[in-house]
Amino acid sequence: MHNTNRRTDILNNYVYLHTLKSYDVDVTKIIEDNQLKNLNPEISIAKEDLGVYFFTGDKIIDYGTSQYGVYFRNFKEVINSVQKSGEILTNHIYLAENE
After folding, report:
1. What proportion of the chain, given as a percentage, has pLDDT over 70?
2. What is the pLDDT of residues 22-80, one digit of tens each?
C-alpha cells in the first residue's frame, strides 16, 4: 500500500510539472534550484490523460483526479492510522522499557 502512494506521488509530480509548464514556468530551473532528484523536466503528464480505476470484485469504479493530480484518500487514511498506531505502540514500548 505504501508503495502505491509513492508511485502516486511520482505520477503527481509529473502532473505538477505539466501544470507549471502550462503557466510558462521554467520547470528545469525549479528542479535544479531545489536539487529535485528523479524528475525529468522533459516529461510531463496532463491530468486529463490519467485514469485511475478500482475493481471492487463486481464493478469498476472511476477514482477520478483533482486539480492537483491523484490523491488516494482511502490509502492516506489507512497509512495515517497505521502510522499513528505504530507511534502509540512504540511510545508504550519506550515507557515500559524505562519504568
Report:
1. 66
2. 898 999 999 999 999 888 999 988 878 877 776 777 887 776 665 555 555 565 665 67
Residue 12 burial (10 A CB sphere; 0-12, 13-18, 19+): buried
- Among the listed residues 48, 6, 13, 46, the one whose alpha carbon sits nearest the alpha carbon of residue 27: 13
Cβ atoms 65, 50 nearer than 8 A: yes
The CA-based angle 71-72-74, given to 5 degrees, is 140
Q: Give, as one character, the DSSP assignment of residue 69.
A: B
CA angle 28, 31, 35 (to 5 degrees): 140
Neighbouring CB atoms inside 10 A of 17's CB total 23
What's the pLDDT tens digit per position in 26-40? Answer: 999 999 999 998 889
- Give the three-state DSSP class for 61: strand
